[in-house]
Amino acid sequence: MLKIGCHLSSSKGYEAMGKEALKIGANTFQFFTRNPRGGAAKAIDESDVERFLKLASENGIDTILAHAPYTLNACAADEGLREFARNTMADDLQRMEYTPGNYYNFHPGSHVKQGVDVGIEYISGMLNEILRPEQKTTVLLETMAGKGSEVGRTFEEIRAILDRVELSGHMGVCLDTCHIWDGGYDIVTNLDAVLQEFDNVIGMERLKAVHLNDSLNPLSAHKDRHAKIGEGCIGNEALIQVINHPLLRELPFYLETPNDIDGYAKEIAFLKENYKETE
Ligand code: FE
Ligand code: FE
Ligand code: ZN
Predict the structure, then answer these.
(1) What average pLDDT does range 214-234 have in this prediction?
(2) Residue 278 falls within a domain, yes or no?
(3) Closest ligand relative to 107 C-alpha
(4) Which ligand is nearest to the Cα of residue 224, counting in written order?
(5) In degrees rounded to 5, what are phi and psi of residue 106?
(6) Which ligand is nearest to the Cα of residue 105, counting in written order?
(7) CB contact at 8 A, 131 and 120
(8) What predicted TM-score, i.e. pTM, was given to this entire model?
(9) Position 176 in a domain
(10) Residue 204 gets which letter from DSSP?
């Protein structure tokens, strides 16, 4: 069965997200742990979490994906900003333990003229400070479009971060179709070769989740502007290949397309219709 969901607002809590997911035909979802621009997170409401966990287990919702605020920059030049990133992520990871066994995704960061090697050192250094042996959450590095000085455009950069993380058993990768396309990986005409390269450089076993987005821009644009499914330069045919690919089809897919909730429901229905059940 296709594991599919979309980005949902977390402002009403976990149970509300679970109900909204079910309403639009999703069996998973993504959410921000706090305001995407940063700031304090609401305290965890334990009874809300309990109701959510019950709803989720009764209705087959699993593998939820928390997304870190995108302002968080683990490799900023400013020490205060790096400290903010570290404290925010450490706090988020503690909160994630209320819903054990799920994923926490973050953008590696922007090295802002320090160079990609310095960026990689800061990012892995931060992870080494905050990962805990006993944690039940897997932390995912998101593949990036390479806008500005973003780290994580190439599979090699992702690999270099993973190589420096001591508790790397708690680490995985989230592949964003818009980002890798903008980053120069041709998933439209060469999906097999791109996945082969991912496997050679990072290892397919690290791939835990896919952000399923179309892109407003052509291959290698380094822009990062998402389009609705089938309304961008990637197109329906390639995205349908992505969800059905033998190496990807069992993974959870999360839509981050520019949609309201009805738009998401339509995209989810469309993708389910085009998913080839194997049994
Ligand atoms: Fe992201
Ligand atoms: Fe993404
Ligand atoms: Zn993006």
Answers:
(1) 98
(2) no
(3) 1
(4) 3
(5) -145, 155
(6) 1
(7) no
(8) 0.97
(9) yes
(10) G
Centre of ligand 3 to C-alpha 226, Å, is 6
3-state helix, strand, coil in the chain (%, to 5): 40, 15, 45
Q: State the distance from the centre of ligand 3 to the C-alpha of 224, rounded, in angstroms.
A: 5
CATH classification of the domain holding 151? 3.20.20.150
Rg, Å, the chain Cα set? 18
What residues pack around ion ligand 3 (CB closer than 5 A)?
224
CA 144–ligand 2 middle distance (angstroms):
8
| Cross-strand partners of 171 | 139
Domain that holds residue 198: 3-273
User: How many A from CA of 279 to the centre of ligand 2?
Assistant: 30
Ligand 1 mean position, distance from CA 67 (Å): 7
CB count, 10 Å around CB of 190? 12
| Residue 278: per-residue pLDDT | 82
| 279 inside domain | no
pLDDT one-digit tens code per residue, 121-174: 999 999 999 999 999 999 999 999 999 999 999 999 999 999 999 999 999 999
| Number of domains forming the structure of the chain | 1
Please report whether residue 89 resides in a domain. Answer: yes
CA of 180 to the centre of ligand 3 (A): 10
